Amino acid sequence: MKKIFSIIIPTYNVEDKITKSVKSIINQNHDLYECIIVDGNSDDNTIELVKKHQNQYPDNIKYISETDQGVYDAMNRGIDLAEGEYLYFLGAGDTLKPNILTKVKEKLKMKSELVYGGVYLEKTGQVDIAKFDQYRISNRNISHQAIFYHNSIFRIIGKYNLNYPILADYEFNIRCFSNEKIEKRYLNLVIANYEEEGISSTVIDKNFIENKSKILLNFLGATIKDVINKINYNIKGKKIIIWGTSAGYKDNRNLIKGDILCFIDSDKNKQGDSLDDKKIYSPDKLFDYNKEDIFIIVFSKTYYNEISDYLQEKGFKEFKNYCCFVSLMFDN
């Protein structure tokens, strides 16, 4: 009988993790899923453990083991093998929430749709869950452990782009959100426990970072242009100061027109360093300039209210003298 879900797990030398993930799957309703383990020719005991699980659940678990070009090549191979109506990708070491497949099944429309919820972050003990649109997806990704893709999506927009070895799922999700044929639906459900130990948590995808602005403009077009035009209108003729030196700025630096005067960061360990050949200062540096001559772009959603309160106390006015880049992306 054809299953509703194809759960694809790419693996390579994960003998200490695979059983944990498989157990979370076999505890679901067996009528709902097939589990496809795509192994990259592991040389530890991963395959022996997989075979053991397959022998116990031959109608639900299948696997292949062969050399591949990385995790997204393995995921693409899993797509080719999948027979389920919806495809879901689980990292080795990550686990499904109890009875989650039954809960999600009740929400499905059985058509071209991307259905997503949230994940529990095991390292921080936080839940990462939010409703996404084109603005939000342009700023950050949805964890693939939170997403169910109808199988037709891969016929509509293709598979994962192997040019992005760390963030191909982000590029894929941008394509999904840009395509009107694909319905995007948010579920207020935590789908899985995310171990946060995959390669994307420790390695930077330089190719994706360098091409992100082109990817956004190519697939999200007018949506992103509206946001950037709004920012660039505000900074016309002014000196640009960036508050924040982390991923928020680094991932979107190519979207800001004009020369950056300097950076501000509250982290004393960063003050005195340089980023993009510009000095990083404490907030006190702002008072070296006339308020009317500068525009501050804040790249921090988490601390924006605190930063905004500080700036307003010092006489700066929101949108006239400063704005939150992330808020502009989310709130249009």
UniProtKB/TrEMBL annotation:
Ranges for domain Glycosyltransferase 2-like: 6-146
InterPro entries cross-referenced by the UniProt entry: Glyco_trans_2-like, Nucleotide-diphossugar_trans, SAM-dependent_MTases_sf
GO molecular function annotation: transferase activity
Pfam families from the UniProt entry: Glycos_transf_2
Listed name of the protein: Glycosyltransferase involved in cell wall biosynthesis
Keywords: Transferase
